[in-house]
Design the sequence.
């Protein structure tokens, strides 16, 4: 059976590149997209290539970045623009296949196996964007190995050669139509395709094939592979496993003892055995259908939350966003959880409570979240909070059946839902701040915060 032809496309320095494309005065300059220091989230979210060359790093404080690069230009994030560019890119990919699976705003897998015959011949390509990279077709020495991969077929080779040409065309179109550059990995599975795009942070294309994966992928650090984070990488290194090739040769005993079933999954990834499918995109929303398991929102407060009044203002702001998004997605929740981070030592905790009846009411979510906080800490300067997160889980369909009660409270709940839905419609038409609760206006610093508008949906996990 012919191997799949999968591309992983990563838009380079996405936030910064969008800013430079929208404002020509920023092009070829060292810029960084960063939060607002006045709101205490002043860290570098993204940087341009010019800023990267000066040593600026994502995640560091603005003042640290400016010490390295005094001429650094700071621009605020514009999530609406990022979503617009992301959608344009996804619709461009959709012209090549309906199997387009986003992985965050700036990354997508696409599976062109079934459409290759529409976009190219079968002759091998003669170039690579990778400076000094090995040629596409190459032999390799396997050495003594505990694992031998099935032989590659000629049909598989031709499919990746054709996929490379599709990748070239997509790269050129993104550059011409959106003004951005992309790194693309091409492989027969999603894990190695992503590894290919991650390996080149510039305007490049890297193919990882059955012929060359031992030579290209296996010498890479284990942390280069998806799902091997810093903690897992340290555990592996402590036992002498430093590269992806080392992981590919790990024994059953070691994996079972140290990692359990996730260890076997990582080994299969390292061996190129990932068989997860690229999901089909819905062009109406430029996304795939995900199973929503929870809806939450968190915020670092503009100042330390010392009094109960301070905490309540932020909890209600967060609950407004969570409740509104629940209703938009046609859900109620049975569980409400709250997480808090302390201002003094940045330690944190989380608590949750489960309801007998599911709810989508902002009022219920806020009251439950506040109740959890009251039960777990005093409100004073010694126990001041820096950040709060409110989350609704254990979801049920909004239109689903509900248990009636003997005391008529169900009618009152139904009327409150109708009121919340009416307010949702007003906010949809006139902005989220057109209707505000008095409790949310009690804190001057948070009056202008629009949590729902500024909410960013982070990448969906590779495993679902």
Sequence:
């Amino acid at each position: 059976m012919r191997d799949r032809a999968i591309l992983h496309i990563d838009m380079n320095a996405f936030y910064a590149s969008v800013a430079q494309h929208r404002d020509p005065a920023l092009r070829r300059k060292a810029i960084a997209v960063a939060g607002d220091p006045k709101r205490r989230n002043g860290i570098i979210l993204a940087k341009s290539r010019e800023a990267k060359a000066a040593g600026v790093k994502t995640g560091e404080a603005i003042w640290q970045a400016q010490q390295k690069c005094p001429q650094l230009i700071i621009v605020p994030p514009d999530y609406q623009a990022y979503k617009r560019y992301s959608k344009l890119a996804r619709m461009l990919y959709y012209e090549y296949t309906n199997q387009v699976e986003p992985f965050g705003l700036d990354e997508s897998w696409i599976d062109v196996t079934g459409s290759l015959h529409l976009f190219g011949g079968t002759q091998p390509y003669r170039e690579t964007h990778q400076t000094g990279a090995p040629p596409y077709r190459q032999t390799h020495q396997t050495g003594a190995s505990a694992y031998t991969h099935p032989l590659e077929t000629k049909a598989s080779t031709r499919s990746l050669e054709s996929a490379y040409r599709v990748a070239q065309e997509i790269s050129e179109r993104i550059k011409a139509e959106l003004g951005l550059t992309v790194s693309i990995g091409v492989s027969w599975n999603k894990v190695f395709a992503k590894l290919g795009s991650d390996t080149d942070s510039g305007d490049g294309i890297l193919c990882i094939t059955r012929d060359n994966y031992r030579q290209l992928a296996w010498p890479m650090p284990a942390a280069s592979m998806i799902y091997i984070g810093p903690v897992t990488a340290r555990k592996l290194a402590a036992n002498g496993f430093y590269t992806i090739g080392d992981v590919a040769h790990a024994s059953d005993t070691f994996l079972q003892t140290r990692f359990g079933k996730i260890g076997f999954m990582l080994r299969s990834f390292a061996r190129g055995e990932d068989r997860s499918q690229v999901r089909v995109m819905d062009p109406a929303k430029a996304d795939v259908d995900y199973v929503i398991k929870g809806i939450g929102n968190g915020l670092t407060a503009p100042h330390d939350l010392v009094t109960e009044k301070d905490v309540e203002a932020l909890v209600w702001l967060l609950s407004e966003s969570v409740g509104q998004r629940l209703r938009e997605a046609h859900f109620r929740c049975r569980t409400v959880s709250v997480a808090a981070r302390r201002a003094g030592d940045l330690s944190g905790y989380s608590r949750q409570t489960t309801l007998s009846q599911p709810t989508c009411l902002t009022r219920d979510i806020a009251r439950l979240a506040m109740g959890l906080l009251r039960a777990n800490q005093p409100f004073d300067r010694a126990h001041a909070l820096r950040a709060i997160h409110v989350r609704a889980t254990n979801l049920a369909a909004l239109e689903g059946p509900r248990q009636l009660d003997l005391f008529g409270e169900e009618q009152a709940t139904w009327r409150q839902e109708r009121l919340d839905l009416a307010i949702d419609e007003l906010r949809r038409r006139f902005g989220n701040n057109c209707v505000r609760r008095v409790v949310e206006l009690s804190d001057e610093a948070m009056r202008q915060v629009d949590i729902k508008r500024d909410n960013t949906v982070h990448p969906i996990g590779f495993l679902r």
